[in-house]
Specification:
The chain has about 170 residues and is an alpha/beta fold. It contains 5 helices and 7 strands, in the order ααβαβαββαβββ. It has a 7-stranded mixed sheet, covered by helices on one side. Strand 6 and strand 7 form a beta hairpin. Helix 2 crosses helix 3. It is globular and about 40 Å long. It binds S-adenosylmethionine (SAM). The site of S-adenosylmethionine has 23 residues, from helix 3 and strand 2.
Length: about 170
């Protein structure tokens, strides 16, 4: 699995993982989660969408640590179940929502911040939608992988991981 993931990452190719997933489940470490939210300067007025949310940790941290609201999409029903449980346990179930849905079909226009921990080929495929559907000024943060010729406005390193920030430009 690791070799396959690294090859996919290096080549930017798309690949089917178990259950038709485009990206395997690899959770972001908590310091990286906080780093992503800080890089996006998340505040209480923000609506954070995590595409491929896993156990919901990014959206839940946005609510718990930054008083934001948010939504996570994941194709794996097991992850959505875990995310809803974690939200309840964390006391933020009234501020976050988790939906079982393919991220390529997910509605994203209500976001003021979008978070990604996907793969280069998936970021590339998403890029046209991010640029055309998100409101100008929306912040997009990616753990590890960049967006090709859409250059980030800022990059930081947290816990040995590169984090990238883009701001959706005026159209
Ligand atoms: C690398 S994990 C990141 C999880 C979480 N965002 C984090 O940073 O901890 C990628 C997630 O994307 C989900 N995923 C993969 N392909 C997907 C797709 N086409 N639509 C929605 N979710 C998908 C996987 O189930 C997995 O939970």
């Amino acid at each position: 699995m690791l070799v396959s993931l690294l090859l996919t990452a290096l080549l930017g190719a798309s690949q089917d993982f178990d259950n038709g997933l485009d990206v395997p489940y690899v959770p972001s470490p908590s310091e990286v989660v906080t780093g992503m939210l800080k890089l996006a300067e998340v505040k209480s007025t923000d609506f954070v969408i995590d595409l491929g949310c896993g156990d919901g940790r990014i959206v839940i941290a946005a609510a718990k640590e930054f008083d934001a609201r948010g939504l996570g999409y994941d194709l794996d029903p097991e992850r959505i179940r875990e995310a809803r449980e974690l939200a309840t346990k964390s006391g933020v179930a009234d501020r976050v929502k988790f939906v079982e849905k393919n991220l390529f079909d997910a509605e994203i226009k209500q976001a003021s911040v979008v978070t990604l921990y996907l793969l280069p080929g998936v970021n590339q495929k998403l890029k046209p939608r991010l640029l055309s559907e998100l409101k100008p000024g929306t912040r997009v943060v990616s753990h590890s992988f960049d967006m090709g010729d859409w250059k980030p406005v800022k990059q930081v390193e947290v816990g040995g991981r590169k984090l990238h920030l883009w701001i959706v430009p005026q159209r």
